[in-house]
Amino acid sequence: MTLPVFDLPQIAAVASKPLIFSAVREALIAHAEGQTQVPPPLHLEFPDADGDCHVKAGHVAGAPYFTVKVAAGFYRNAERGLPTNSGLVLVLDAQTGVPAAILADEGWLTAWRTAAAGALITHALTPHDADEVGILGSGLQARLQVQWLGALRPLRQVRVWSRRSEAARRLCEELIDGGVDAAPATIEQAASMPCVITATPSTRPLAAAAAFVGAKHVTGIGTDLPGKAELPPQLFAAAALVATDDHAQCLDHGDFGNAVRAGAVDANADTAVGAVLRDGIDPDTAGLTIADLTGVGATDAAVAMAVYRATQ
Amino acid sequence: MTLPVFDLPQIAAVASKPLIFSAVREALIAHAEGQTQVPPPLHLEFPDADGDCHVKAGHVAGAPYFTVKVAAGFYRNAERGLPTNSGLVLVLDAQTGVPAAILADEGWLTAWRTAAAGALITHALTPHDADEVGILGSGLQARLQVQWLGALRPLRQVRVWSRRSEAARRLCEELIDGGVDAAPATIEQAASMPCVITATPSTRPLAAAAAFVGAKHVTGIGTDLPGKAELPPQLFAAAALVATDDHAQCLDHGDFGNAVRAGAVDANADTAVGAVLRDGIDPDTAGLTIADLTGVGATDAAVAMAVYRATQ
Question: Which of B102, B103, B105, B106 to mutate to probe the A interface, most A CBs <10 Å?
Fold first, then answer.
């Protein structure tokens, strides 16, 4: 068996934003239509090394390839001068099961598909003339959410709040280097922008619903695992539309589920992100909208397949 | 990231029987002692292509590597001139999560660890002077079980029964070529040998308990998935010792579980295969013994790690 291994530079050379936006959009729509296969992930824990490993597989019905993604997070790696996250994606032929390639992406494909999913739904649900964005969080996804949203619409002003003020300052410098008017802000300033994106590892709501007083749209992308929480349940009570990337998953561990358990919103009150992307919605008249993203395995499959095919 | 890919010839060059026996033995003992991490596998189904894919991960406590194994079975591949089974094993560093290597083993490491586990427990539980073996089944594992057992003790006579008489004849020719006195037999002849090994995809018991009249030890390795069955429940009622490779798994879908559900044996009547291998037992005075093997993920991890280290 000859098994080509593509390294990060080779992957980055073909993984353009348009390619990833297109793959993620199609996968989210297919997922909303029940045309994806996403089995429950497999987990390993390495308490001695403060590490864990998650294996996710996915297939979009009819696609010529399926994927198995291995993502590890080892939280003492920095002490060794290694990145915390590592991983790769295995691409297999969906007609024969034969492995086609390894994408040794070091976790970047996941970062990009998360950025793309967030940017797509934020763009779809934010009023056309809203160009001021508040960011809660200062990590990699906080940066990518701004950069990928900026590829879909002009951003006039970005205000960044983080528990780690130094990290917020550094993120603003990076964004300014990229031509964005960015500045650190208080949580009240950031949360009252017309468009708010939360990308933190928080385990409790970042602010009360009243803090989001100026928000027309809020996207939360931090609740990727049980126990996480970013948005206050009462914000869901005030929303005219709640979009979830996976109903069951968001109910289980998204902020939507937190709001349902708090009695703030009905368990069937959500709309699929993929349906919003497919059908469109007028964000100027929609009222307050929320997108709750927990990460859909089918987007991994679609992005890896698109990248692999682009290398051929 | 540089990620070495070892192909089957490179793997076969280092995967000696002693190396695999040693790794499997240690993994089974560690598993019996609760020193392994084997999360529930992940499954994908491809009904249009008559295929499926299973992903299994494993780690033996304290081992420097863990593994993620991808195994696909696509049952129309023969029409395309491709093998039905394919797969690979990813070896990762258990201290950092960083991928270390891909073993593109095309499913052979699984075949060898299954052969080794069967041979180890068959050898441990079969009386010392018993050198006549009955094989029910004629596939790859039927052949490997004989060949690997033959590496642990001399086999004077092998009698093979299969639903597919032509396949039984071919298997005997292969075994004879390897120096074994093998011949096709009726199921009554094969099942009444002192040592009996079943390796079939059967979904119902292959014969009544009375057919095993001359058996001192029986190893069943075919019940790898729910719905499978090879050994009659009443045989378990007659056994002095039942060894299972994984208590919960054998209870769920092994012949041991079938026997428990039939009321033939108590749900706690089994002994761990790893405990038998660790502590030893006198097979000459043990009475009728049965080994029920469903496949333990920790043996995949141990074998892949041993092979990877042997390449370094």
Answer: B102
